[in-house]
Amino acid sequence: MIDVRNLTKRFGDHTAVNDISLRVGPGETLVLLGTSGCGKTTTLKMMNRLIEPGGGSISVDGVDVAQQDGPGLRRRIGYVIQDGGLFPHYTIAEAIATVPKLIGWTPTQIQERTRELIDKLQLPESLLNRYPAELSGGQRQRVGLARALAARPPVVLMDEPFGALDPFTRRHVRRELFGLNELRETTVVLVTHDVSEALELADRIALMDKGRIVQIGPPDELLNHPATDFVRDFLDDQPRRNQLE
Amino acid sequence: MIDFFTFVRDNASKLLEQTLTHIGLTFVSLLLALLIGLPLGILIARKKQLASGVLGIAGVLQTIPSVALLGFLIPLLGIGIGPALVALFLYALLPIIRNTFVGITEVSPSIIEAARGVGMTDVQILTKVQLPLALPVIFAGVRTATVINVGVATLAAYVAAGGLGEFIFSGIALSNVNMMLAGAIPAALLAVGFDLGLARLQRLSGRNVRIGTVALVILVPFLSAFYLLPYGQDKLVTGFAHEFFGRADGYPGLQKTYGLTVNPRLIDQNLMYEAIHRHQVDIISGYSTDGRIKAFDLRVLDDNRHAFPPYGAAPVVRQATLDRYPDLGPTLNQLAGKLTDSVMTDLNYRADYLHQSPETIARDFLRKVGLYKVPASVDRTGTVVMGSKVFTEQYILAEIYRQLIEGYTQLRVVARTGLGGTQICFDALRTGAIDFYPEYTGTGLLVILQHPAGTLNTLSMQPDSVYAYVNQQFEKRYQLVWLNPLGFNNSYSLMMRRDQAQALRIESIEGLVRYLKNDQ
Fold first, then answer.
1. For all residues of chain B together, what is the average pLDDT?
2. Kindly report the CA angle at B304 between B302 and B310, in degrees rounded to 5?
3. Cα(B327)–Cα(B315) distance, rounded to whole angstroms?
4. What is the pLDDT at residue A243?
5. Cα B175 to Cα A168: distance, rounded to the nearest angstrom
6. Who has the most CB within 10 Å: B250, B283, B346, B373?
7. What stretches pass through the bilayer (chain B) (predicted)?
């Protein structure tokens, strides 16, 4: 579904992403895990060309992203960021309708899809005419996801989507969301620094450090057969810290 | 207070016209500022390296005092709506550019990234996200600009662009508090009203972007259109000084005597001549010996029915001084009748336009009329103190007197020129601080003697009878003597460009009234 080859990105002297290659299969959830500054977010943003790749290639659904115009590409890829990234002046209904409207769905189609989504995401219908500021953090995150899924994109990119939530809500929301069939069928690339989140959600984890992938594989493989001390330390150290939270 | 309401009632139509013009001026300039300022604000929000330059220039424009700004613009754009609109536009520009810029740049980067992330193009990000979120801030800018403009628009009355400033400045010129308030109160109410109205819109735009935008898009052009409302238009455009418009012996006198009714544009009296010269108006109210009559080739219309009181010039001297120096009176009286209107106009013209010194002008004049004498080098025993008001004509007269006295007598002359207005000169004379100064009969009658309106009607406005009357009254009340009149009459007068007056065969105010009444 996503095929990344020899991807590189430099910002001045600093190499943010250094010769990365990876593939994500259809319906798979890949988690890019690592410390801040390891290049995981840059890698994610190059997939929908929010950041232009410096070298190498990325293809989504068999088409090279460099061949497509940025806005058009991004309308076919869902995008979720911390705290939902909702526009303060859009009602919840308008927020969910954002992408369908951009690609020219009819009002009826949009209305049906909106009902379907709020139903699945367990959002009360009364929220539709509210503004993001009137919602709880968990609700905002769900609306953010609904907006990303509205046009049924084959791929959804998530950048620290649960970062703004308190640990309890975070666990609750992510369990609920990733339980959705809708999301299970979608190819997801998720960026996080939270090891337990990665272990819980990922089909495969790509652990990154200093712009390179240190190890990529299913969670078990990374836990049981860490490729380097760095991998062992990273996975070993973090869960305990998370439990303390 | 009752007087105030009476004034407002009597002038209701004029007041309404001024108010609508005022609103129109405010919003035409606001509209222009929005058309230029919004795109400029958007541009500098995208190209931040331009921001400090653009905001800096707009900021400097904002700090120029409004009267000075008009001063810069009049040479470029003349008078009328041009300089008024440009000045208002420049003042409105900064708040709009700055608030557009701030409003857009303050939208949080994560929201912009989310907008890019869902696939909006740059234009869509601007129109669907940045501008709507910036709208309340932009509205605040529009509000500031509107309130500034309502205030500055009062200055439009200086340059014949109309508005509530007409009553304010006329009121100040005439010390007529009711007239002043009739302009000032509506102007203040407009400022407060628009501020409150726009504050409501601003709150609305915070909640519902569409309503806010639509309201702005409809309202501003609608209010601008007030400026385009057709007001009474005469065949010839009249420009009157504020004071002339309101003074009993000015326009109201003309109305009474000749039945002249025009729809005058009010304008600062120093800009009036420039305006007629540039064909922006066709008739002005001027002073009959102004040097600019010659400079701009203007024709003074005859006032056969004497609507304007005569302002014949003559030296006013203390009786005590005449007694002490018996040769002073005859010396000064040599000038009697020597300075006709055209001679005085020419002398003023030399000073104002050829920039000759009063000393040269006076000597040339005295030589021409054969009165010049080189001062004898004698011991000057006595001293006379001579006063003058602060304008060209009086400086020239003072210089003529000085040379004359020094040539014909053994008196020494001390000049106290620049004594401000009539009241200061007159008080100085009465208390003996000066011995004489040149005064005008009309001023003596209306300002010093302060005649009740009744006497004015019974007194014939012939120059001779006014002269005789003031002379007699001054002598009786103040022991002051009016020596023989110099000959010229510096009174109010209507004037036109000579070529136009000739083409239309208008020579007198009667002729003008006839022309305006014909086939209108």
1. 87
2. 85
3. 15
4. 47
5. 77
6. B283
7. 20-43, 50-70, 76-94, 133-159, 179-199, 211-229
Q: Convert the pLDDT of each residue in B302-321 to its tens digit.
A: 988 888 888 999 999 999 99
In angstroms, the separation between the Cα of residue B120 and the nearest Cα of chain A is 6
Count of other CB atoms within 10 angstroms of residue A104: 7
Query: Distance of CA B359 to CAs A180, B348, B372, B395, Å?
Result: 103, 13, 12, 9
Residues 215-244 of A with CB under 8 A from B: none
How many residues are present in chain B? 520
Q: B153 CB near a chain A CB, below 8 Å?
A: no
The pairing of strands A2-11 and A55-60 is antiparallel
Cα B426 to Cα B439: distance, rounded to the nearest angstrom: 9
Tell me which amino acid residue B9 is. Answer: R
How much of chain B exceeds pLDDT 90, in percent?
A: 42
B275 confidence band (pLDDT: 50, 70, 90): confident
- Bridging pattern class, strands A212-217 and A204-209: antiparallel
Chain-centroid distance of CA B207 in Å reads: 46
pLDDT tens column, B401-415 = 999 999 999 999 998
Q: A143, A135 in Cβ contact below 8 A?
A: yes
Three-state DSSP state, A17: strand
Provide the whole-model pTM: 0.73
Select the residue of A48, A83, A89 nearest B117 (Cβ to Cβ): A48
Beta bridge partners of residue A207, listed in sequence order: A33, A215
Cα–Cα distance for residue pair B273/B105, rounded to 1 Å: 50
Chain A neighbors of B120, CB-CB under 8 A: 71, 102
Angle between helices B392-408 and B358-368 (to 10 degrees): 60
Chain B residues with CB under 8 Å of A85 CB are: 110-111, 113-114, 117
Model pLDDT for residues B458-514, shown as the tens digit of each residue: 666 788 888 999 999 999 999 999 999 999 998 889 999 999 999 989 999 989 998
B452: confidence class by pLDDT, cuts 50, 70, 90: low
pLDDT digits (tens, 9 = 90+) for B75-129: 788 777 888 889 999 999 999 999 999 999 999 988 999 999 999 999 999 999 9
